[in-house]
Amino acid sequence: MNIINAKFSPTAIEKAFILRSELLEKMTRDKNKNVIFVTAPAGYGKTTLLSQFNHMTDEKVMWYHLDMFDNEILTFMTYLSEGIARCLGKHQEDIVPFLNERLDQGDIKGLVADLLNYLSQKSQDPLCIIFDDFHYLTEDLIHECIAVFIRYLPSNIRVIIASRTQPALDLDFLLTSHRFAEISIEQLKFSQAEENTFIDKIKPNHQEIYNQELIRKNNGWPFGLNLLQHAISENLVSGYEIQELYKKCFDNIFEMFDDQEFLLSTCLLEILDVEACNYITNRTNAYETLKMMSGKGLFISKIHSGVFKYHDLFRDYLQEKVSNKKEVYEKISAYYIYRNNTLEAIDYLLLSRDYDGADALLKKGQYTYVSIAYYSKIYHWEKKISTKTAYEYGSFSLIKALIALKNLEVESGRQFIKNARILFLDQKDEEGLLKADIIWVKVLRMEYKADEAYALANVIYKKIHNRPLDEKVDVLSEKLYISAFLSRVDEEFIVLKNEILSINENHIKTSEVQAFALLEYAAYLIGEYRTAMSVQAKYRDKISPLNSIIYTIRIYMVWGHLEEGKTYVLKEIDNAKRFGLNANLPELYGILAELEFHHGEYGHAEKYFKETMKCFVDKNNNLYHLSTFTYATMLAFLGRKDEALEMVSKYYPRIPKDNHLGFMMVDMMLSQMYLILKDYDLAIEHAKRAMVPSEAFGTKLYVATLSAVIATAYLAKGDERNVLKYAQTTMDLSESGYYIQDFMTFYEYYKPLYHFCLQNHIHTTFVEEIKNRVGQGLMEQETNDSEKLYVRFFGDNIVKAGGKLVRWRTVKAKHIFYYLLYHNKTGVTKDKLMDTFFEHYDLDKANGNIRTSLTYIRKAMQDVGFEEIIWQANSRYFINDKIITTDLMHFNQHIEDLNHTDEDLILSAKALNNIYKGAFCEDIDIYEFNLEKEKYYNTFQNVILKAVSLLEEKKDYKEALNFMNILIQHQNYNESYYQKKAELYHIMGNQVMMKKTEEELWRIKEK
Question: Fewer CB within 10 A of the terminal residue: the chain, N end or C end?
Answer without folding.
Answer: N
